[in-house]
């Protein structure tokens, strides 16, 4: 399609990253434009609102020094698009999809709208294939299923970046290792974090099967809104055009939502809860619902959005709305982190609503669900007893109670606290049985007798934490 090369010269005013242009009602919503000023500098932008009076343009770069008198706006593309190619795997890009790895620009096989194509609900297939992250707490207790969207709820100062890098390095769909890819999008990174992710992906070899989009904290807020859409467009292309099973990791959605709030303030919109725009739920849903499995298509898109909860408040609008849209949550715990446990994932408030679809006989192992339930119940009992001991002391406990206290310690040390190891689901279940076997058989009420007869008494020469063996 040939686009009309028309210029709009009546730029009325600038508010932060927003440019207001009069007599431009024929510009289309989401159109990509160039803004040129008298100095010859050209900035990119996107149309975010059109009325009879004016058009509002988000400028992708700094607006400081932009001369209104000489500024002109010209149409580049009817909608924001990304040139995609299979050759993007193994590459690093900025938040707008421009290479930052020193290599030439990607030769696009196709140009796709970054807004994605709505997925027909009738064409969605049921997610029911297990994805192994190599992290015991996730794989056994909050299992990730291919096509699922399962967020990680973290907090300021907690090691969610390290956890994200570990998942990106270790994740696989058993039996489909060759056509598995990771699309990693990070928003609002400091320079130190950019260096960390770049070095980590290169050091571990994870970059060879990954596509990285890295948006820095000093980049314009507008770019932060485009970064996850660039990543998801790439994921959809790899999944539904080339048959990849794609895991999309988005971090940190809190930075994304704060950019939404900043843009909303510049547009003088009426704020909603905590100053965030009222349409934030819809905006997040547009991102999260781009995960799924489609009938007749070999590939799939699975999402792990990561967000840091302000003040560790799970009722804050960002985690609250995310919880409505997604299928569970993985909670990173500050108390576990303060004990030196890594990854500090607390299984009690964590949940995977699709876990039952992808585990069990023929998928992981027949005893998987029962083991998950038993670990949950025993750990919850152990934590309750810890609170009781703080009041009454250990003298008031029965011998069985003391075993549960010991179980809670072992569970945190050897099962949750696996460090940076990559455990198969078999390894994780073996560790679980090794810890559960310290409890009397009579206490394993959630496990079948057949499983107890087969696995009870499992021992391990070494329980993988700093080389310490389990006594």
Which regions have little confidence, pLDDT < 50, spanning 5+ residues? 463-471
Our count of helices gives 13
Class from helix and strand fractions: alpha/beta
Q: Tell the overall outline.
A: elongated
Number of DSSP-assigned strands: 21
Q: What is the CA-based Rg, rounded?
A: 25 Å
CATH architecture descriptor of the largest domain: 3-Layer(aba) Sandwich
What is the average per-residue confidence, as pLDDT, rounded to a whole number?
A: 91
Proportion of helical residues = 25-40%
Largest sheet, if any?
A: 10 strands, mixed
In the CATH hierarchy, what is the class of the largest domain?
Alpha Beta
Strand content: 15-25%
The overall number of domains is 3
C-alpha termini separation: 71 Å
Which fold name is given in CATH as the topology of the largest domain?
Rossmann fold
Domain ATP synthase A/B type C-terminal: 358-456
Domain ATPase F1/V1/A1 complex alpha/beta subunit nucleotide-binding: 134-352
GO molecular function, one term: ATP binding
Keywords: ATP synthesis, Hydrogen ion transport, Ion transport, Transport
